[in-house]
Write a sequence for this structure.
């Protein structure tokens, strides 16, 4: 029986097999010294048990070798990335120091090991990155792009190996993070194959029934689907060969995750999704003839089948920022079925499969590395301003968005996320232009800074010397760079206004022969309701409070401190806002948020009206507050899918002595006196208060809603049971 830190027999065999395969794949990339040193470290780690298992019971040494295989076969990385990955847990266990890594393996390897060390520290206690650690994660990722490639491959490895993990809660969290962070990261870097695998595995663990339903349907229709593909490509094959082109074709079925998203978006069953597959035509063309050959194939296919012009995508003329190049066209095939055809060369296909790591190997091809470096630079810039939650939202948006291509009047090309506005374009050109932007001129027509850009637009930015960024610009801007720069400018403006307000207060105090003392002034701010100095001076600058009012309050405070007058005013120092006053939360109930934190302010979500005793979770809002939802809230799946990083654990503690508002829906026969029977049951319970009742009747049936106040789920269940037993009541449900 293996101990916590040693390997099982199966793991030992797997490690040996993976190591041998990795050796074959790397070939001469690793020299003799690299291999000998790695072998020595592996032996030492296994003998001492210095490397501990992760939260799923997986041994990192085995996972690292499996991840290295993914890096080499799926991404095609070089020696530095593989060594950085294989050495990172040895360094963490103290078997080799950072200086030794640098001396023995080089600076590149050392940089990668340091980046992975920071990420490992974040994941040590929790298998998912929470919002407060997200900034640290980005700092690690932004240092070296190879670190991003490694963590993506590592997450793929984890997702492949947690099928039988006992910790289902951790598995769901990791799957959620894989879907909202690592799959979009893989997409951004052009690793479409890994992106699809991450999405499919996430769906498998998060929505088990949906995943296997689609998988079974795909298996059942495979034979007919293959036959249709054969009928579709046969005439194309003949025409392309007749044109003298060297090529091969293959069919590609959409990923299970993609099909599921389409089913949800179109609100249709599996049978209603028609474009289940795409045909890929891959040309063997020299670099100088690539575009010419691709357009020739495009012409041949559109002559044979009716194309859908709205579904055409030209990433040949202007490749995506991750280096992706291809022509996509959707045509009407036999039996009236739409079929997507992708046209590309061997080089383009390798870039599409392996992303930027493959792209950079081809010299003279523009885009790629410079584009991603620009993206990483925008991450570094965003880290300077804004809170972690806003940063996460921006980062996620930048990953997911497709691109639009717009031009300056001089013909310079800019790539922006779909949905970007004139304001985003202004900040993309230069921060100073963004700060002074008043609007734009698109194709000769004046537009506002809120105007959404379309591919092909020629945009001229209009500015004014007196223009300054506004708070509502944050709702206009879509890109992380623009929002980051706007917040930075607003902070600087606020600081200047606060400094001016402070000078004005000191000047008027001198005019009235008042000597301001720091301690007394702080107490005055508190009495006026300001606990933060910057908020106080901002209120002065905005005219929310008058300087003369402040000076009068200051003199009163000064006299009070000298004992000249007694003050009946309650100090804000001694005032503690009730945690949930608006909802009637009492002292006896305690919500424990995020493991052991108590006393944190929260509000109860109106959409699901949680009551003491419900299974709940916390959701961190964009304003920084916490909303408590029931785990079966109708909005919970959407919140977990789109904002998994904002979810916080929460549970009830204490006694349910507070009153909570909930709504019940009742349906039944419209009999005489039934409403009286319902209200009578509620009125008999002293601890239940009926706030409102609304009843509608139609065709002999009534339906209505009751809004009541009660203290816990046990009393709620009793009440619902009593109401269900009323003669004529058909259904009672909680809304």
């Amino acid at each position: 029986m293996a101990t916590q830190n040693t390997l099982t027999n199966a793991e030992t065999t797997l490690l040996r097999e993976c190591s041998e395969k990795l050796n074959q794949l790397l070939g001469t990339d690793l020299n003799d010294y690299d291999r000998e040193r790695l072998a020595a470290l592996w032996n030492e780690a296994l003998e001492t048990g210095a490397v501990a298992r992760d939260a799923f019971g997986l041994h990192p040494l085995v996972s690292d070798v499996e991840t290295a295989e993914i890096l080499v076969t799926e991404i095609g990385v070089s020696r530095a990335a593989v060594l950085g990955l294989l050495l990172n847990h040895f360094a963490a266990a103290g078997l080799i120091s950072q200086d030794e890594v640098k001396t023995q393996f080089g600076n590149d390897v050392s940089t990668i090991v340091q980046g992975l060390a920071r990420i490992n520290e974040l994941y040590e206690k929790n298998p998912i990155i929470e919002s407060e650690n997200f900034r640290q994660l980005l700092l690690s990722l932004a240092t070296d792009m190879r670190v991003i490639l490694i963590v993506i491959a590592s997450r793929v490895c984890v997702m492949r190996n947690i099928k039988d993990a006992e910790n289902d809660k951790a598995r769901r969290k990791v799957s959620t993070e894989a879907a909202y962070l690592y799959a979009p990261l893989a997409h951004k870097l052009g690793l479409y194959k890994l992106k699809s695998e991450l999405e499919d595995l996430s769906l498998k663990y998060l929505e088990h029934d949906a995943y296997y339903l689609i998988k079974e349907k795909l298996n059942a229709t495979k034979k007919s689907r293959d036959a249709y593909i054969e009928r579709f490509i046969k005439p194309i094959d003949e025409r392309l060969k007749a044109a003298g082109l060297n090529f091969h074709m293959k069919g590609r079925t959409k990923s299970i995750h993609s099909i599921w998203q389409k089913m949800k978006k179109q609100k249709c069953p599996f049978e209603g999704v028609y474009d289940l597959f795409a045909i890929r035509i891959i040309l063997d063309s020299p670099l100088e003839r690539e575009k010419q050959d691709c357009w020739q194939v495009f012409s041949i296919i559109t002559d044979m089948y009716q194309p859908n012009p709205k579904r055409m995508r030209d990433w040949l003329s202007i490749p995506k920022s991750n280096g992706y190049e291809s022509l996509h066209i959707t045509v009407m095939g036999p039996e009236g079925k739409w079929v997507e055809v992708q046209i590309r060369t061997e080089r383009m296909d390798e870039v599409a499969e392996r992303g930027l790591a493959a792209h950079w190997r081809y010299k003279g091809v523009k885009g790629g590395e410079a584009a991603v470096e620009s993206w990483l630079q925008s991450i570094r810039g965003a880290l300077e301003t804004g809170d972690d939650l806003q940063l996460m939202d921006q980062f996620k948006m930048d990953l997911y968005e497709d691109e639009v291509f717009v031009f300056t009047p001089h013909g310079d090309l800019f790539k922006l996320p779909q949905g970007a506005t004139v304001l985003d374009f202004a900040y993309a050109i230069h921060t100073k232009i963004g700060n002074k932007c008043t609007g734009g001129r698109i194709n000769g027509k004046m537009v506002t800074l809120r105007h959404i850009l379309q591919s092909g637009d020629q945009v001229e930015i209009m500015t004014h010397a007196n223009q300054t960024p506004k708070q509502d610009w944050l709702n206009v801007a879509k890109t992380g760079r623009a929002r980051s720069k706007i917040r930075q400018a607003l902070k600087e403006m606020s600081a200047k206004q606060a400094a001016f307000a402070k000078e004005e207060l000191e000047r008027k105090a001198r005019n009235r022969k008042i000597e301001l003392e720091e301690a007394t002034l702080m107490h005055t701010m508190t009495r006026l309701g300001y606990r933060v100095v910057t908020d106080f001076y901002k209120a002065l600058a905005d005219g929310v409070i008058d300087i003369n009012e402040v000076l009068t309050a200051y003199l009163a405070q000064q006299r009070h401190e000298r004992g000249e007058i007694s003050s009946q005013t309650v100090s804000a120092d001694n005032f503690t806002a009730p945690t949930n006053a608006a909802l009637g939360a009492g002292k006896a109930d305690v919500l424990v948020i995020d493991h052991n934190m108590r006393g944190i302010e929260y509000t109860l979500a109106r959409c699901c009206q949680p009551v003491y005793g419900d299974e709940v979770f916390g959701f961190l809002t964009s304003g920084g507050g916490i909303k408590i939802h029931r785990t079966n809230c109708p909005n919970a799946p959407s919140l977990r899918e789109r904002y998994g990083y904002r979810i916080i654990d929460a549970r009830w503690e204490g006694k349910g002595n507070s009153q909570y508002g909930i709504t019940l829906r009742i349906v039944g026969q419209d009999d005489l006196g039934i409403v009286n029977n319902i209200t009578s049951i509620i009125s008999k319970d002293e601890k239940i208060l009926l706030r409102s009742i609304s009843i509608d009747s139609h065709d002999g049936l009534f339906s209505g809603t009751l809004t009541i106040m009660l203290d816990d789920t046990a009393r709620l269940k009793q009440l619902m049971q009593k109401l269900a037993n009323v003669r004529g009541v058909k259904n009672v449900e909680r809304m």
Notes: The chain has six domains: 9-206, 211-359, 369-487, 512-574, 581-654, 660-734. The CA atoms of residues 34 and 105 lie 8 Å apart. Residues 208-242 form the longest helix (35 residues). DSSP finds 27 helices and 20 strands in the chain.
